[in-house]
Amino acid sequence: MPKLSGRTRGRPTVRNVFSRCPHCDWIARVASRKSITATYDELFYECRNFDCGHRWKAALSFVHTLAPSATPKPGLDLPVYTRPAGPPRPANDPGGPEVPRPANDDVTRASATG
Ligand SMILES: [Zn+2]
Questions:
Q1: For FRET with 65, which of 16, 74, 98, 100 sits at 20 to 30 Å CA-CA?
Q2: Does the structure show a pLDDT above 60 at 111?
Q3: Domain boundaries defined on the chain
């Protein structure tokens, strides 16, 4: 399992997951991290503003799978995101009910009379 502290070949690690201090809006870094479960971590942040000094605990939680793992862990059952029901629509389709044609629409009349 890869180590989560320090840089690992340029990949992001938990220590360079920055946030903003809610008090002074400066950058805050993760000072330490505690894994509670496979899908829930506690992160301990430190504000980088020396004059502020705010420290706090935050949570990092798994929400759902977007693409399945090629190396799934046996016994780990995670929720998978599913798209809302209904057929996909083109981006320029405003949706909603079909707009009725006006009474003087020649195309409709011509097809109705044969
Ligand atoms: Zn601060």
A1: 16
A2: no
A3: 10-65
